[in-house]
Amino acid sequence: MVVVCDLTRHEGQQAVQVASNHINAVRVLNKGARVLPGVLIGNKTDLEERRKVSSEQLEGFASQQGLAYFETSASDSMTSCHEPFEHIARDYHNKFSDQLKLTASGTLQV
To answer: CATH second-level architecture of 2-109?
Structure first.
C-alpha cells in the first residue's frame, strides 16, 4: 500500500484523517488485513514555506498504522523518490519469501 500525503494541502490533523480514510479503504478491499506492507509518503518537501503538516505528526501516524514514513519531492532532483518504492518492494519480498517454504516432498506451501 502506498499512501501519498500532500504536505501543503491540509492542516495537521486533517491530513492524518485524509490518510486514515485512504488506508481504511484499502484495508476494506483487502478483507480487513491489518498487516499490509506499505508506506506513507509526505510529498512536496520542496515547498517548505507552504507546509501545513509536520513530519512528527505523519511519522507518528504511520507508525501507529504499521507503515514506514518517507518524505519526498517530485520536483527536487536531490530527493530520492525511489526510496519508498524500494522499501515496499523489499518489505513484500521479505514477508512473502518467509511464507514460502518447500516441504520435504518438494511441494510448495503458502
So the answer is: 3-Layer(aba) Sandwich (3.40)
